[in-house]
């Protein structure tokens, strides 16, 4: 059943991309120009001062991770809001599976397209800036955890969208929230504050991924365990809260409302 759902969603995504390719191209161009504006603007304000290769690599890695998270965060809620507006939301409830499971399948079905666009933006940025990131198999675990935690937050927004339907303002504000979660060097592990910062969504995995890509640092087993725990916990929380929000929407008769 989930295989058929995934196939249907992937087919729909492919058809949409073929019909509206300009949206994907413009998205890649806009995000590339946005980074270029920040990069060259900051160098101009700094009087043309040179930035170290490691610092530049960390900046590029942080920006790319932020791009990855914003799409996964905004996608589920925006799609539910759009489905409610077009009248498709009621039809989705006829699917022989939990609504939350359907949303998860939908998100993962569109993940390839999203990551391809992110990779395209990264390639163009690296070409213009000359930065080289350190790719390794060790970076896959924190990258996967970033994806899981981002989807978890997206499912939380989707749960909110199930009840109120209009989430455009929240999604716009969420881009800056995601930037703070990705870029803030909160640290972790040691002391009460460190343990609390390890609970912040995305941040432990994003910080670890940035260090691996920019300086190829050696990470401990504890770092990987914290990343996995953080990603899986927020993904599970998002799924449970979305499932709960669906039940609330049904009880209040809000499924078909907009």
Number of helices: 11
Shape: globular
SSE order: HHHHHHHHHHH
Tally the structural domains.
1
Q: Strand pairing plus helix content: what structural class?
A: mainly alpha
Helical percentage:
over 70%
InterPro entries: ABC2_TM, Nod_factor_ABC_transporter
Membrane topology: Multi-pass membrane protein
Organism: Dyella monticola
GO molecular function, one term: ABC-type transporter activity
SSE topology sketch:
Elements (H helix, E strand, L loop, with lengths): L1 H18 L1 H25 L7 H34 L2 H4 L6 H11 L1 H19 L10 H25 L3 H16 L7 H7 L5 H13 L5 H32 L6
Helix pairs in contact: 1-2, 1-5, 2-6, 3-6, 3-7, 3-8, 3-10, 5-11, 7-10, 7-11
Spell out the key features of this protein.
258 residues; globular; mainly alpha
Describe this structure as you would to a colleague.
This protein is an all-alpha fold. It has one domain (2-252). The protein is built from eleven helices and no strands. The chain has helices spanning 2-19, 21-45, 53-86, 89-92, 99-109, 111-129, 140-164, 168-183, 191-197, 203-215, 221-252. Helix 1 (2-19) packs across helix 2 (21-45), helix 3 packs across helix 10 (203-215) and helix 5 crosses helix 11 (221-252). It is globular, with a radius of gyration of 19 Å.
